[in-house]
Amino acid sequence: MNEKPIILIKNLWKSFGKNNVLKGINLTVNKGEALVVLGRSGSGKSIMIKCLVGLIEADKGEINVFGTDITKLRNNELNKIRVRVGFMFQNGALYDSMSVRNNLAFTLKHHTKDLTDQEIEFKINEALENVGLKEAIDKMPSELSGGMRKRIGLARTLIINPEIILYDEPTSGLDTITSREISELIVSIQKKYKASSIIITHDMSCAKMTGNRIMIIKDGVINTEGTYEELKKSTDEWVCSFFS
């Protein structure tokens, strides 16, 4: 018997005023799978994953995470789901007034109560080791390059040992070499943590490296899906435009 999907989205709608952004999105993510979602700017990719963790309220549809429709949950019930989900924001979303150590400690204490100082320190060092930045532990965000901020953002995502990881444009604003390093990091984390992931990107190199499967959003719905190689062979002019 096949396992149920970790994430199942059915007929998801979201509008802002007269702007209909999502017009009936249907999507599944299976356990351990890395799904890439592509789309032009403004296509609703980021809106979709924010709906997935209740940061934005959906207008209509089902969002099943771990078998529970989160659209029907109260905030305290939703928080029980959220602690199992890591969200890597586009800009890293670090607190500028806190050192790297304190950024990570803050997240850990928020998600996991009753940890000793030793356990917190161990988890911080482990998370930084996973992203190759142990030496940055006492630096302030202003002292970090764009690529380093992304890595620390990823460390902060990993520190809660999430079962699902949501990446919002993980390589945006980075040069080609740093983008590749971040993509390689996502792949190694996928192997190590066996997490289920959604990677929102418009970076085709990142999509090729990280995704088991790719979906493309167009006009508020999933236009097409397949592996990188399958989509690359598409005869659809619009799909081909992503590969040119």
Automatic annotation (TrEMBL):
Protein name: ABC transporter ATP-binding protein
Domain ABC transporter, residue spans: 7-244
SMART domains on file: AAA (SM00382)
Organism: Flavobacterium myungsuense
Keywords: ATP-binding, Nucleotide-binding, Transport
Span of the signal peptide: none
Classification via InterPro entries: AAA+_ATPase (IPR003593), ABC_transporter-like_ATP-bd (IPR003439), ABC_transporter-like_CS (IPR017871), P-loop_NTPase (IPR027417)
Organism lineage: Bacteria, Pseudomonadati, Bacteroidota, Flavobacteriia, Flavobacteriales
GO molecular function: ATP binding
Source species, domain of life: Bacteria
